[in-house]
Amino acid sequence: MGKGKLWKWEENAEMKNVFEPDLQEAVRGVQHPHKGQWHKEVFGNDHPITLELGCGKGEYTVELARQWPQRNFVGVDIKGHRFWRGAKTANQESLSNVAFLRTRIEFIDQFFAAGEVERIWLTFSDPQPKDEKGTKRITSGKFIERYRKFLAPEGTIRIKSDSKLLYALSKEDYIEAGYPFLHDSDDVYGGFLDEIDPDLRAALEIKTFYEQRWLEEGKNIHFMEIQPPSTPKG
Ligand SMILES: C[S@@+](CC[C@H](N)C(=O)[O-])C[C@H]1O[C@@H](n2cnc3c(N)ncnc32)[C@H](O)[C@@H]1O
Asked: What does the pLDDT look like over 76-126, one tens digit per residue?
């Protein structure tokens, strides 16, 4: 265990905006007490909730929170020492509309109730090239089915990626499922930003460490926004 990780875990345990529930409970299918309670218990308001799944250091989550104070944001990742950075920054800047949740995205529907989440960002997710069935790629049709359980009616999912493979495989799944596309671009910085509303443009112009790296390598950045119907309650 790296020393660098240990003190970050210790600091995470002290931060009010960090939630690190017992993973074994999630494995056993226990529904988290915050499920259906995020507005009341965590944010203390009824502003719309956005998730960033696989948030890494939480750079996207924090910048979205800075730019949209009237919305709430939850960064989710299995690596707590990574999102320690985002949680710390949010605390230092007194951003009260940001939280971080440590869990596996496979269990995410145990944390959010039907209709509780208005938007999901999947930013630079691992492409998982060997995952033919889509059981690991968090943008796959299988994962979208999970997200539909708590996505609000009219809620959307935004996928931003440098990976041609992830883009192609995910798109194939969405077309097969018949999910409506609100946006689709295989080159975000090739004119697409000029065609979209300023709100989405501002959100897409946020660049994480990973994205900067891919851009320096000359990679195209892909983006899709889909609007899968939420699944009915029950
Ligand atoms: C390539 S990084 C991208 C980080 C960030 N979104 C960015 O753009 O900088 C992928 C992140 O997803 C997380 N991740 C991958 N699969 C996951 C899963 N099944 N559950 C939770 N986190 C996961 C990893 O721990 C990692 O931090």
From this structure: 999 999 999 999 999 999 999 999 999 999 999 999 999 999 999 999 999
Helix (H, G, I), strand (E, B) or coil at 128: coil
- Residue 131 Cβ inside 6 Å of ligand 1? The answer reads no
Place of tokens 């004119």: 191
Structure tokens at 60: 């996207």
Does the pTM exceed 0.85?
A: yes
Tokens at 32, concatenated: 């988290």
Q: Is 126 a catalytic residue?
A: yes
Q: Is 54 in the pocket of ligand 1 (CB under 6 A)?
A: yes
Q: Output the residue whose Cα is nearest ligand 1's atom 26.
A: 56
In three-state secondary structure terms, 174 is helix
For residue range 163-216, list pLDDT tens digits in order.
999 999 999 999 999 999 999 999 999 999 999 999 999 999 999 988 999 999
Nearest to 18 by CA among 94, 104, 80: 80
**Two tokens, residue 194:** 């000029």
Q: What does the angle CA 208 – CA 214 – CA 217 come to, to the nearest 5 degrees?
A: 145
Tell me the C-alpha distance between 234 and 223, whole Å. 32
